[in-house]
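so the lab meeting is tmrw and i was supposed to have these ready like two days ago... anyway. pasting both below. for each one the top line is the aa sequence and the line under it is the structure tokens. i havent really looked at them closely yet so no promises
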Amino acid sequence: MEELVFGWEEWVALPDLGLPAIKAKVDTGARTSALHAHDIEVFGPAAKPKVRFNVHPIAGRDDIAITCSAPLVDRREVTSSNGESEQRFVISSTLTVADQQWPIEITLTNRAGMTSRMLLGRQALADHISISATERRLQPELSYDAYHDATVRRTAPKRALRIAVLSRENNYSTRRLVEVGEARGHVVEVIDTTRCYMAINAMAPEVHYDGKRLPRYDAVIPRIGASITPYGTAVIRQFETIGTYCVNGSAGITASRDKLHAHQVLASKKIGMPTTAFAASPKDTSNLMGLVGTAPLIVKLLESTQGKGVVLAETKKAAESVIDAFRGLKANFLVQDFVKEAAGEDIRCLVIAGKVVAAMKRTGADGDFRSNLHRGGSAKVVRISKEERETAVRAARAFGLGKAGVDLLRSESGPKVLEVNSSPGFEGIETATGKDIVGKLYDEIEARVKPQPVRRRKSG
């Protein structure tokens, strides 16, 4: 390597950690290098632990934080220049100066009181480096501008993420989320939503689980059952308060789960759906039916899932009987026009990050107008039209969902949205289409957790 001369302070980069520019104090009196880090947490398997931490690369700018993760090399007792000893986590990373790179060991510690965010010790100063202790910044200048423009996202490395899947079930979808995430080098932890509890305060909101505070996750993937929607969304709200990226937000899940609210959202965005009517206790059943049209009609319990609580009334008399029965149970229900031309088929579009990544046609079992796979329906891959694609994307966007199953009916007047599912399963659609849907979800998560440029402060 070409010989380098360092002054007592130099600009360096740590590309493995996503730090394109940082000022380092060169200290030949120190053996190990140190990096100013906070929120330091160990994660992953005991045999191959990783460490996740945040770095404020610019002194005095706590609003600029880069989240880093790296394999844990060691835990070491380090004595600082003032004689104080502390246990520090040790990582290995690539140091870049000028156009040269070499690996160094770095300890993680709180250097909040120091103007330089990093200290370069003897171990980092390779044989080809000499020190001119009275001078500073003899190597090429870098710039903090990298944290204020797209450079910070473009140069962000692929790092190991710590991801929580909120799920109470060990089913295909949950297992796939774990398998695919771990294959990409991430640590995926399945959390039983009902065992979470919350510390709600203004200064430090927290989520606790089995007696311990949950760590900071890079992302949360909610897979919350309909029966625990209110509590599940409260847990997600708590993660949102902390600032964790949630694939689906609490408001979108709440709105999509309430069939009446969901239809109101779709109507407000002028998204096509079967004509729908709802009333708490209409005096005249025929008035409610008249708002929708003539029989056959669909009568749906508002809390229904997977096709349960959905009845096809083929005649006016049958519809009146079903409505009276539901009302007698004091159940909330809505009445909907039956789209005959759909002929017991619907199209499930899986939307991730504003794109339809897969679509399948679901056909009901013999004699069943419902096409749910849980009820014995079958599925096969289908080509969808531009209008169907746009309708599915608009429906997912109306609820602010990063991941959604949008069910469409093909009607004579264009696609009609039957339902927007905020917790779609992956088994049916991956089997039917042969696509790695979960991998596409992780593509989006990895893109979303990259650092964002922070605006410059106006001087003066």
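ok protien two:
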Amino acid sequence: MGIAEVVGVVLFVAVVVLAYVTWRRIRLLRAGGVHVALRSRLDVSGRGWHLGVGHYRGDSFVWSRVLSLRAGPDRVIHRDGFEIDDRREPTASETYAMPAGAVVLRCRGVDGEVVEIAMGPDALTGFLSWLESAPPGRSIPWAS
């Protein structure tokens, strides 16, 4: 097998992977998804953000990375016990991986894991409404 065939195979595989990632993102957005950036390893440098698509499934918010070959969601956030600890504007070093006009929410799950979620104003309104719309008998998930 010559160099031309190897380069051809590599380019073909790259095009197929790119086409799959593009098709997956479009499919997730058409299913009612919103652009959301998420990070679970918090540091002061502003690194670790991953752009993805999130959507609601009853009491769960499922998030899938844009650049992932995984068929299912990468993260599932359950509304029960989920609390918002802080709300802030992104720093200049963080805006590279966030939707336009994003607001950053620092959140804590029932297991104590801290994640930060960044989303635009429209997505934020929907997310906050989803959190507040817990069935009767549950507490509203606000820590502050």
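from a quick look at the 2nd one: The first strand starts at residue 34 and ends at 39. The chain has a mean pLDDT of 82. will dig more after coffe
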